[in-house]
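Re: that chain you flagged

S.,

Sorry for the slow reply, it's been a week of failed gels. I finally had a moment to sit down with the sequence you sent. For the record, here it is as I used it:
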Amino acid sequence: MKTAFVAFIVVAAAASQAVTFSNFVVGSAPLSTGWSQNSIGNSVSFFFPNAIVGDNQTLTSGTVNIQYDAASGPAMIANQAVVNLGAFFAGTGTVLFTELIIELDANGNEVGGNIGSISHVFAPNSNPVWSGTINFSRQVTNFRAKKSFTLLAPDVANQLDLAAIGIVNQNVQVVPEPATMTALGLGIAALLRRKRSSK
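Prediction finished late last night. Pasting the structure tokens below so you have them in one place:
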């Protein structure tokens, strides 16, 4: 029993620290000006202090694009990504969000079409916080995320019209590769057999 518990803890610990994020590309100044990112474990967050359009702003519409690569750790594969977003909008303010997930080969080249996608619209009277899950069509070791935010806030007289991106967070779920789980299972079985035969 102790052996199985230790094996579970080892697998869980590996899965919680298994993703590396790299090759960040963020576009569309001035909305992307001053952006920053922070990654911890399997999560990456983006911050956009100038991604706002509408009344008293330079723009009444604009787009922010985010692209990055993610790699699972050794003996791990990714099978889904959870998106957490926060937006601010008032009056006619609307934020349109889309994301595509594309598999990468070992050299960082895109392989085939999308293996997952998601979209959401923040509109007047909708919740400013949203979370959604992208289930990949197949498990992968490396992938590229492509996010796009279109901010719209056409001016209407006598009201405040704004649209802004608050926070963008992505959490990648990874699981051990089947071969790793098989090896781990065989190892546990051998330990249990050895323990029984020594009694």
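What I noticed first: The first strand starts at residue 19 and ends at 27.

Talk soon,
D.
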